[in-house]
Design brief:
Blueprint lengths: L18 H10 L1 E5 L2 E8 L7 E6 L8 H18 L9 E8 L7 H19 L3
Length: 129
Amino acid sequence: MIETPRKKTLRKHERLYEKTALDMVFQKGNVINNAPIKLLWVIDKRKSEVPVKVAFSVPKRLFKKAVTRNLLKRRMREAYRKNKILKVEADTTYALMFIYSARKINLYPEIESKIVLTLQHFKTATGAE
């Protein structure tokens, strides 16, 4: 019997959208900075069905048009979806926030390489796989 690989998806329950969780990430989060991507992360004490919850942000003061912000968020989401963290320590939930900090619009390959590099730094900092 041949086992098919799992789809690499990013579903609603993997997203970080609760206001309390977002506030916690901004107030108590650890920082990993690989320009133009900045990662804020924190261990979430609340129980969740997924080990890692993630959110993406592009500041309005850097990009005034919503079209541009949405484009950059789509590129970051896709890069994360293709390279996301699959395993972490048992009974540990992480809340991640990726923030785009450059003043120019980077192409997808550059964004993906920075997301991968940032995730590798995160994995070494936490011991995740």
